[in-house]
Amino acid sequence: MKRISKTLTGIFAVILLSAVQVWANPLDFKNAVGVFAMSNSATSVYGLQYQSWCTDRIGFQIEGAAYYDSASGAYKPLDYNIAAEFQYRLYDTTWGTRTGTSLYAWLLAGHRGFIQNSYSWSDETESSEKTDSLYYADVIAGIGFGFDIMFVNHLSIPVQFGFMGQFPTESAIGFSFGTGLRYRF
Prior knowledge:
mainly beta; eight-stranded antiparallel beta barrel; 1 helix
């Protein structure tokens, strides 16, 4: 009797969860995780990403990545970035029950840091030798528009474009484009 009760409870739970997914709207999933990369000719923001809509209109996302390799003698043995975006949803719509889009404006603020090695040629050893290793810290800022294409309820492809710049070490500003792949939940 207990086995039948457990089996029926399990079947009921699976049916209930399946039914929720049938009527779920992709805009109902307010959080997402995935990978993202946005760049221009001078700077980039890339890495793992978390995105969330706090209300129907206001959201945020954070992304970041790091690279460190001290053994190879790389020109930049440490290079990392972390950024946060404020997002304001302008428009959203669904196509059927499993596909939707969202148009939003974004404002980005972030930080990029790196260690840059300097090398000079040595006539004695007939090779280059590291002469200096300096740490640099830059601010990243950007503004633009983006849209999020959601399909199969949970998969999402964000596409963003706008202007992004980096200051003060490697100062530059320019048109930027970015995209990624996320899982919405």
